[in-house]
Amino acid sequence: METRIAEIASGIYRLSTFVPQIAPPAGFTFNQFLVLGDEPLLFHAGLRRMFPLVREAVARLVPPERLRWIGFGHYEADESGAVNEWLAMAPHAEAAHGHTGCLVSLNDMADRTPRMLADGEVIDLGAGRRLRWIDTPHIPHGWDAGVLFEEASGTLLCGDLFTQIGDGPALTEADVVGPAIAAEDLFGFSSLNPGMGATIRRLAALSPRTLALMHGPSFAGDGAAALRALADDYDRRFQAAMN
Ligand SMILES: [Fe+2]
Ligand SMILES: [Fe+2]
């Protein structure tokens, strides 16, 4: 296994590890995003067992001990598994997560007290980099779920939203909604609930220009349209499940 690096928006790097054994023959990617700034932030701590690979990839961009923030969309092995490895390596690093996730998991599981982010709260990385935390409870799964929006580049670090199988390019302008619908059919990873459409449309209101998928390529284009189409599909699924 190797971890490949690509800049998917100005100062935002995708670190991608492809695992052919998951969902064969297509395989599956695990991506982290490094946002540069005076206080560099890594979105997704990654799996504990992938930590050496991801650390080596980070080290090609910044000294890993300089990392200041470790964020993730929800508490789960591929999102947060290596959080304590990062905290041990980077003496000034703090985990940053939403209120729910800190209260139900991270205050106990993280080796240092995490920064608790309110819905809409901004992490200022300096150098013009501001990341806004947005609560998306249970979407696509996890009570503590949320996303980060990088305002300068219009990049939505959207975690498991738009998950797709396969090993595509680092950045694509191709459709990401169809592959996400196919992956939902395959895995059933989302927690269908009546708030899904409204919550995902709230993200569309940010009009992101880049969608940074945790599992799949990053998407450059009309992020709002993609989010609305995804919201429509989840509304359709929810209605179908209720009938
Ligand atoms: Fe997840
Ligand atoms: Fe994930």
UniProtKB/TrEMBL annotation:
<protein>
    <submittedName>
        <fullName>MBL fold metallo-hydrolase</fullName>
    </submittedName>
</protein>
<dbReference type="Pfam" id="PF19583">
    <property type="entry name" value="ODP"/>
</dbReference>
<dbReference type="InterPro" id="IPR036866">
    <property type="entry name" value="RibonucZ/Hydroxyglut_hydro"/>
</dbReference>
<dbReference type="InterPro" id="IPR045761">
    <property type="entry name" value="ODP_dom"/>
</dbReference>
<feature type="domain" description="ODP">
    <location>
        <begin position="29"/>
        <end position="166"/>
    </location>
</feature>
